[in-house]
Amino acid sequence: MSELRLPLLPEEVTAGWLGEALSGYAPGVAVERIEVTDILWGTGTKMMVTAVYNRAGRDAGLPERLCVKAGLAEHRELVKFCYQTEARFFAEIAPRLSIGLPRCFFAAANADQGVVIMEDLRPAGAQICRVQQPLSRDQAAAFLDDLAALHARWWNDLALADEGELGWLMLHDPLPDAAWGDFGRGQLQPETWAHYMGLPRSLGIPRVCRDREAMHAALQALRRFAPGGPTCVIHGDAHLGNMYLDAAGRPGFLDWQTARRGHWAQDVTYFYVSALDPLDRRAWEGDLIAGYLAALGRHGVADAPGEAEAWAAIRAHMVYGLFYWMVNPVEWQAEENNAAVAPRFGWAAVDLGAPPAEAV
Predict the structure, then answer these.
(1) What count of other Cβ atoms lies within 10 Å of the Cβ of residue 198?
(2) End residue of a domain, out of 124, 141, 165
């Protein structure tokens, strides 16, 4: 838990507070003044800040442009565990990884909040990925290699036991019994389901995937399947909007609010289906998944799954991305994003005979 008071409102992010927060990274730093250039509201609020430092800050190489991410909106209390998870990820997990991540200068959580101060990626030429711009084969392979490195780091590690060092990470569950599952169960109610099936996103989804009862059954089947597989640290929301390419084209991952303990196929399936044009996915998926499995071995996994086991896991996990992009509120993702991604999952389910399309 952080000893430094963590801001709960945008106006509490002051030059004085920022300097105090950054002093752990750069002793003696003082922030002489700041300019808030933008505030991006979402599940987590991102304040884009330009900072002017004293000599100690400049000598430490602190960037002028920073992103302060925290729960600063009215809904903060409802999802504060998301902010706490991301802050603890950057404080406790990120330093032990060798994957593409933004530079982080402060990360802390307390009972009410989680705050991360990281670099603003834009001045260095990084590009945030967009679901309307599917990846090339080489780009997808590079992201999968980083996912393999993430998954391999704590593959079936005792640290992921409930009482282990990383037992604080929630277990991934597509439809949990706890209160966090209320959203998914609510989206499966007949009237709500009918509403989403009437939106533009549904027009490109195969009709076999629009059966509400079959969808519910497939989600329950995934709940039974996932705990039986290897457990690792997963990103939990590995779609293109949470990824970037740096100026050299190297992959990077953003938004670790949903980091979880879970099955590798959750990340892999969610990523590659959502990130590729369906025709490219059909042509490349065999080689891409084989490449991911080989990368697990390179990153130290001695018991990586074989191809038959891997494809069974991918089929089982297909329903997660399909369901949540089909019922994604427009307050969370613009309809143009939902309409781009949901059909990709629908046709992948049909192509691979994955629930709820296994009978096709």
Answers:
(1) 10
(2) 124
Tokens of 174: 């597509």
Where does residue 177 rank: exposed (0-12), middle (13-18), buried (19+ CB within 10 A)?
A: exposed
256 touches 233 (CB < 8 A): no
Domain-embedded: residue 27: yes
Number of domains, the chain: 2
- Quote the pLDDT of residue 359: 56
Assess contact for 148 and 140: CB atoms under 8 A. no
* Model pLDDT for residues 293-342, shown as the tens digit of each residue: 999 999 999 999 999 999 999 999 999 999 999 999 998 899 999 999 99
Tell me the CATH number at 247.
3.90.1200.10
For residue 349, how far is the Cα from the chain centroid?
Answer: 21
Amino acid at 185: R
Contact yes or no for 230/266 (Cβ under 8 A): no
Model confidence at 74, pLDDT cuts 50, 70, 90, reads: confident
Residue-number span of the structural domain to which 341 is assigned: 127-352
Average pLDDT over residues 80-95: 96
Q: Is residue 79 pLDDT above 70, yes or no?
A: yes
226 — pLDDT class (breaks 50, 70, 90): confident
Buried b (16+ CB within 10 A) or exposed e, 282-306: eebbeebbebbbebbeebebeebbe
Strand order from edge to edge, sheet including 243-245: 127-128, 243-245, 251-253
Confidence of residue 1 (pLDDT cuts 50, 70, 90): low
* Model pTM score: 0.95
CA-CA distance, 1 to 10, in Å (whole number)? 21
For the record, the structure tokens of 116 come out as 């991360």
CB 218 within 8 A of CB 315: no
Residues 6+ apart with CB under 8 A from 208: 214, 350, 356, 357, 359, 360
Q: Quick check: 87 and 61 in contact, CB under 8 A? A: no
CB of 55 closer than 8 Å to CB of 73: no
**Are residue 243 and residue 305 in the same domain, yes or no?**
yes
The model's confidence at residue 235, banded by pLDDT at 50, 70 and 90, is very high
